[in-house]
Amino acid sequence: MIKFIAASTIAACVGLFEIPAYAASAAAAVPGDFPLAGTYMQNVPCKGDGTDQPALKVTISAQQIVSNLGVCTILENKHVGNSYKLHVECKFPAGPLVGDLTFTPMPDNTVKFVDRDKTYNSILHRCPG
Questions:
Q1: Which among 34, 53, 58, 63 could disulfide-bond with 2, CB atoms 3.0 to 4.6 Å apart, if both were Cys?
Q2: Which pLDDT score, from 0 to 100, does residue 15 have?
């Protein structure tokens, strides 16, 4: 669903992110319900009528992110300011990858996505339901 494509992914069809260190004082664990949970379309509004492009679909739960590129297991999530920083392990056809992603809910009910190195970003549009 999300095209988690960073420079290393383009080069190796697998690479996503480098692992940053989070300052414990600047981050707090995300408790209970995960506000990012839902189905999204990448960079296009979600119609939700069955005509959305499957390749652009991204499904997020508190445990994983599923896209057309593979499944990323959320190992850790932290709420930092108005963003959610997720430490993930992704399984791709070419092999596993560990990395970090940032999701920032926006006022227009979209979510801005960026990888750690800021080599790839997109806007996720929440699907109804």
A1: 58
A2: 30
